[in-house]
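Blinded run. Sample ID left blank on purpose so nobody reads anything into the name before looking at the predicted structure. Input follows.
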Amino acid sequence: MSRLEPGRLEAGARVHFGRPTALVRNRTLSVRFDVRSILVCIPLVLAALTVAVVSLATGDYDVSVPQVLQAFTGDAPGLAQTIVMEWRLPRVLSALVFGAALGMSGGIFQSMTRNPLGSPDIIGFNTGAYTGALIVMLTVGGGYLGVAVGALVGGILTALAVYLLAYRRGSQGFRLIIVGIGISAMLAALNHWLILQAELEAALAAAVWGAGTLNGITWEQAAPAAVVVVVVGLSTLAVARRMQLLEMGDDAARALGVRAEPTRLLLLILGVALTAAVTAVAGPIAFVALAAPQLARRLTRSAGITLVPSAVMGAFLLVASDLAAQRLFAPVQLPVGVVTVCIGGIYLVWLLAKEARKS
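Blinded prediction complete.
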């Protein structure tokens, strides 16, 4: 392999470990990229941005694409500037960021369980975050911060309960999924009971929010959630290498210097934090975390789950689903969770049929 100039990427930096890779190295940092993953992520990013621009341009008041681009420089006409930057951009940005968070969270749990069904909405972490947020909303009220803390606490407590109940000389993926499904069913029943006991207006608001919606989202809600997702996402990428080593099995990971259970617990907390940040603002959006990592894995043809392609796929799926939720029955806007459930249901049936044929 040829030597690299500090911070530069050259053709000679490609090495082959069964797949073409590229290496970027400087005096303090060395990062290896999978070439196929890069080639998959670039079109997905462009597709997500294209859908985002269409979402910014279309609605009850259409704005031309040049005016959308002008709005980012402050040169658009007054009304178009307000529509794009104040009314539509928080929703579109939230769809991109939240989709990336859900895709990454799904990737974490599918890697931990080594099972394509191991996503936070299947094993109950979404439901637990919803329970925590629901308790805060219906008992003490409060804005984003209170609901976010409730969602985070509910998600973490649910994750710890699943982890401890599934633990037996280590936490095995299949046990995590089975225990998670059981706890999810119990929490779903609790959520329905809480809504039935609430006052009518609060119950209706909680039920709509519980479907997973980006309708009416503002900068006051989108900005803090985006900051949380970025911080937690970067922290997750910092331990992604250890996550991939865990996929080889605990014994192999320990032989390579990875502390299996502490690393697994850290990944659990990070994955729940990503889910809770989304749930606190938009409610529990289902199936993006389930589908995005597996679709990304099939496109990249990687041996295991890779977090960056999962995040990019999640962003594309959610922003496209939100556009469909806005325009399919316009002027009526559906909760985006309704669209993701429809798409995810089709995907889940296909996945189960594929796994059945395999076995």
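Unblinding after everyone has recorded impressions. The longest strand covers residues 20-25.
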